[in-house]
Design a protein that fits this description.
Among the domains are: about 100 residues, Orthogonal Bundle (Arc Repressor Mutant, subunit A); about 80 residues, Serine Threonine Protein Phosphatase 5, Tetratricopeptide repeat; about 130 residues, P-loop containing nucleotide triphosphate hydrolases (Rossmann fold); about 90 residues; about 70 residues, Arc Repressor Mutant, subunit A. With about 950 residues, the chain is of the alpha/beta class. α7 packs antiparallel against α8. About 50% of the residues are buried. The chain is about 65% helix and about 5% strand. Keywords: DNA-binding.
């Protein structure tokens, strides 16, 4: 029998004898197969997980598989690792894995506990927890396959620990449990069940005041850390203790309450989400949000189906707003997505996981995050959405999906909710509500009331059609509206297609017919936008001032206003946008591309100055437009445009960790324009080498820098040549070349005379970096200090922080730990203010060893956990970008604490928000200033 242990350092035995699993890569290959839990893993996936970007030929992998088979398969010819398709599978029936054994025991123990048999549950839970020897898959760090398993197993361990406490409590061990439970709530302050158990033990021990104090502590922690109130379990327990009930805590942790009850007891808390605020009152469908919520409670995938304009999106948003999910809800508007291959990138962008370019990778990164994902308007991407949702739900155990589509996704376990037309009375209420906004003070007489009801029936109860009709009350009477609709519906019902769809289209066409020629032209052109737009953008795409026409379109409900925006932003309803797409002039698409390019040209230099933070936010909002413009250009074969735009967006992509998508656009543009001039290829190759650096592919970064140098010399542009030479020196050094110092100094000498402060600061930073590689530490520090001074003078936050990061490394190497800590705190706070993502994660990771080496190892462990968590959310790892120092720095922190203590603080760090990390850094800085 073969046994494999992953709940701690990885071990294996065959027939009771310990076997040697070989070096780190070979052990990692086996770990990938174990983590797959009996599923086949393709060769490509194993190579990516184990070797990352520098994967070897498949022959190396196959030789590792052969060795593993030889050491593990000692009992006969039957294979333990079997070939399946283009990959391998570890046979679950032929191997015993401690993680699976733990899960089985914990599940059985929980079942016995729920059946009221704590005396039988106790030994099973004890046995399950005794299998843990340390961090699961710990030796494999933060690799793509290890992180989700660590998160899954960590969650199971927390649950099993609390079930064990519950069993001991049920058997009368409340007095002896208090100390253990106090420690448990310190280690897991966000676990409401842990606080319940502690308060119950205190109360049963006759310590009512301390029990209430514990509940107040729980309330404070949840409010400060998450901004939420305690859940129903804690509230019921507090009420029971106040009432001095005898049976306090007798029942296990309650299941989730029905939706109506939860709505009555506590309003949904504010949390991280991206749902738009409603622009109008929700009329009708009073019971439907609760019905959809009940389905979401029981099913992980719920799809709202029905014809266009039936109100699927509004119902989904109203349902999502009322839910108390810990993460989200996150709205992904798919109607604006034209290219199915960008679905995973779009999902990861909304969820803040910019580095996840496939559904598989995104699912692994999400792990057990409790996320509600609202996928709106899936009908034009049903096949690709179906595959993506199937993958995400199978890999992310905490994910729930609420989709809207004109057809179901047809997946196992999917609950389909057919959104029906509004009943006449609800349609009448909706019409009058919207008409009152169009004509304040208007009250229908009895005859008009009858006409409104007839009109709603003839509109088939479609909310969008009713709203569009009501908007015309500003210029037409109810009788005129009804008469106009009757004429048009009679014609359309004779044509092909569903009646309701034809009715909606006629409603839109009729509203369109009422527009002036100038208003129609503006509406058609506005359909080119992928998302919201402001007045200047509208004027740019329409190639003239459009305030009058835009105002008219807003009044006629064909364009909506995004409330609270300044300057005001506008958006076309999705049905209206779909209506305009067939009428969009190629000239409008060209104007849109020109506007996007002009915006990027204006933004690029600002990313290196005092307006970098606000510019980054603006570019983030414009990302859908970047994608539309790049797609449009590539479809037209205009690789030159794509090269130009990619070069301008490169710093934005770098700072936000948009690595894979950026590289995809650059590669497509280069392939499409092989003979493009150096003025286009040089910035594109500089962009490519930077993004390859973030991906940890240093040879590819060096090659791209080489191309940039050659292009810059052909162009005879001293600025681009200096920048290219400096990058070539840096990536040559990272690849082990020997002439890197000479190249860097040459680049610095080229940059200095140009009078560009930002370029000189960047040149000094790179030169200082390679000086450190060469062992010239004193010269490196002086060079980097000069870079900091110049970057600070011109407000170039990224280079200022990058040079500080390198100075911090030098000080850590020299034993100047206090000075390194001071520098690191200043660096982190500046990056946080600037809105940077990737460099901020690196700063958090680098600050951890400085804290550990200055007597604060627990804080260091917390920051390592925070860096791991926030990096994983965007698919970024400091260790991949900085393999020379980052792993060594992490070891400093690990070695400064006993393993169990390190794991506790590391786990606590994973729950820290960016705002909380900033508050901690400010507190540490104030303490040091005293």
């Amino acid at each position: 029998m073969v046994t494999i242990g992953v709940l701690g350092p990885m071990t294996a035995t065959a027939d009771g004898e310990r076997v040697a699993l070989g070096g780190p890569r070979q052990r990692a290959v086996l770990a990938v197969l174990v983590a797959a839990r009996g599923r086949a893993v393709s060769e490509e996936r194993i190579l990516e997980d184990v070797w990352g970007g520098g994967a070897p030929a498949t022959g190396t992998l196959r030789s590792y598989i052969s060795v593993l088979r030889r050491v593990l398969e000692t009992g006969g010819p039957e294979r333990l690792i079997v070939r399946e398709g283009n990959g391998y599978r570890l046979r679950a029936d032929a191997v015993e894995i401690d993680a699976e054994r733990f899960g089985e025991l914990a599940e059985r123990g929980e079942g016995l506990l729920r059946d009221g048999r704590p005396e039988e549950a106790l030994p099973l839970l004890d046995e399950a927890l005794a299998l843990w020897r340390g961090e699961p898959y710990g030796e494999f760090g933060e690799t793509g396959f290890a992180v989700p398993e660590q998160a899954r197993l960590g969650g199971l361990r927390l649950a099993a620990s609390e079930h064990l406490f519950e069993a001991r409590l049920a058997l009368g061990g409340h007095v002896a449990l208090i100390g253990d439970l106090e420690k448990h709530t310190l280690e897991h302050p966000l676990s409401e069940r842990g606080w319940e158990l502690l308060a119950t033990a205190l109360y049963r021990s006759g310590r009512q005041g301390e029990a209430l104090a514990a509940l107040r502590g729980a309330r404070r922690v949840l409010s400060e850390e998450l901004g939420i109130d305690p859940g129903p379990g804690l509230r019921r327990l507090e009420a029971a203790i106040f009432a001095q009930e005898e049976s306090v805590g007798d029942s296990p942790a309650p299941r989730r309450e029905p939706p109506r009850q939860r709505e009555a007891t506590s309003p949904p808390p504010a949390r991280m989400r991206n749902l738009p605020h409603a622009l109008s009152r929700f009329v009708g469908r009073t019971s439907e949000p609760a019905e959809v919520e009940a389905l979401l409670t029981e099913h992980r995938l719920v799809t709202l189906t029905g014809p266009g304009g039936i109100g699927k999106t509004r119902l989904a948003l109203e349902t999502a707003r009322a839910r108390p999910d810990g993460d989200g809800p996150w709205l992904v508007e798919l109607a604006e997505l034209e290219d199915p291959s960008l679905l995973a990138v779009t999902l990861s962008g909304v969820l803040g996981v910019a580095g996840a370019t496939t559904a598989e990778r995104l699912g692994d990164v999400l792990g057990d995050r409790e996320v509600l994902l609202v996928l709106d308007n899936c009908e034009h991407l049903v096949d690709v959405v179906r595959d993506a949702v199937r993958t995400l739900l199978s890999r992310a155990g905490g994910l729930r999906v609420l989709a809207t589509s004109r057809e179901s996704l047809n997946l196992p376990g999917e609950a389909v909710y057919e959104v029906g037309p509004l009943p006449v009375e609800q349609g009448r209420d909706l019409f009058l509500s919207r008409a009152a906004a169009a004509v304040p003070g208007w009250t229908p007489d009895p005859e008009e009331e009858l006409t409104v009801r007839r009109l709603c029936r003839e509109l088939d109860g479609l909310p969008l059609a009713i709203e569009l009709a009501a908007a015309q009350c500003r210029v037409l009477s109810v009788e005129q509206i009804a008469a106009g609709l009757d004429d048009r519906f009679a014609v359309l019902r004779d044509g092909p297609g569903p009646d309701r769809h034809q009715t909606l289209r006629r409603t839109v066409e009729w509203s369109h017919d009422l527009l002036s020629p100038a208003e129609r032209d503006v509406l058609h052109r506005l359909g080119v936008f992928a998302s919201g737009f402001d007045l200047d953008a509208a004027a740019a795409v329409c190639e003239r001032p459009v305030f009058a026409e835009l105002s008219a379109l807003v009044r006629k409900s064909l364009v909506s206003v995004e409330a609270g925006t300044s300057p005001r932003r506008y958006r076309l309803l999705e049905t209206i946008k779909e209506f305009t797409r067939a009428r969009i002039d190629p000239d409008a698409q060209a104007a849109h591309r020109a506007w996007v390019l002009a915006e990027a040209e204006a933004a690029a230099p600002l990313l290196r100055g005092p307006r970098s933070a606000v510019t980054t936010r603006r570019l983030t909002a414009q990302q859908p437009e970047h994608r539309v413009a790049l797609t449009s250009a590539l479809l037209l074969g205009d690789g030159d445009y794509a090269l130009r735009l990619a070069g301008l967006l490169s710093w934005f992509w770098y700072g936000q960790g948009i690595v894979a998508e950026g590289l995809g656009w650059i590669s497509a543009a280069i392939e499409l324009s092989p003979s493009a001039g150096p003025e286009l290829t040089c910035p594109a190759f500089i962009a490519k080498c930077r993004l390859m650096y973030l991906a940890g592919d240093f040879p590819a970064a060096r090659d791209a820098a080489d191309e940039a140098v050659q292009a810059a010399r052909k162009l005879r542009d001293p600025e681009l040549e200096a920048e290219s030479v400096l990058h070539r020196a840096l990536f040559g050094a990272l690849c082990g070349e020997t002439n890197f110092l000479e190249l860097a100094r040459a680049g610095l000498e080229q940059a200095r005379p140009l009078g560009m402060a930002w370029l000189e600061a960047e040149a000094l930073m790179i030169t200082g970096m390679v000086l450190r590689f060469a062992g010239l530490v004193s010269e490196a520090r002086a060079t980097l200090s000069e870079s900091v001074a110049i970057a600070e003078e011109c407000s170039y936050v990224f280079i200022r922080s990058s040079s500080q990061w390198l100075i911090m490394k030098i000080d850590l190497d020299l034993g100047e730990h206090e000075r390194a800590l001071e520098t690191g705190l200043d660096m982190l706070l500046h990056l946080d203010e600037n809105g940077d993502v990737t460099s901020w994660v690196v700063a958090v990771h680098s600050l951890a060893p400085a804290l550990a080496l200055t007597g604060s190892p627990t804080e260091g462990a917390m920051l390592l956990g925070a860096a791991a968590h926030h990096g994983s959310r965007i698919g970024f790892s400091p260790a991949e970008m900085d393999p020379l120092d980052a792993p060594r720095q992490a070891r400093h922190v690990r070695d400064s604490l006993p393993p169990e203590e390190f794991d506790t603080w590391f786990a606590k760090g994973r729950s820290l928000t960016r705002a909380q990390i900033r508050a901690l850094a400010e507190s540490w800085q104030r303490t040091r200033a005293r």
